[in-house]
Amino acid sequence: MDDITAKRLVFTMLDTDGDGVVSKDEYSARAERVARATGRTDDDPLVIAARAAGERAWAAMDANGDGGVTFEEYAAWAGAEAFDTVCEPVLGGLFDLADTDEDGALDLPEFTALRTALGNPVSNIESAFVALDDDSDGLVRRGDYLASVRAHVSGENSPMGEALYSIGKAGAAGGR
Asked: Is the pTM of this model over 0.85?
């Protein structure tokens, strides 16, 4: 999958109201949705850390400070460098919120809670989980998850990205 297609899929998940602009509220809501999905409270240190990482990421994404990020702005910004310096702490924080037993890995229910809260199509959650659970032990490890997301937004081969792409194409063909 090329990097523009990958970025378009991610942008579409971030732009929850579909107006073509990701607002700060839309971006910040990700941590809130994952916290709610996992039963964490506002004063949980992991929720506080995820919110702080999201604030730093938003400041980097909204470089012109106008309160919104268009696809063009996102596409110019997103990639391996942005992932390594800005996005990895955000996604790692969201992963940690979903890791309710704090073992450094997500089982299918935890993974489902995370991916659903982040706006991924429900139809691809299990295939993405299987693709990331390369040793078939029923767990997706934090490092594997983050590496797959990084590869996806960088336009590299990504098991989770391929699962998203195959469902995204089917959904688009079906008028989703």
From this structure: no
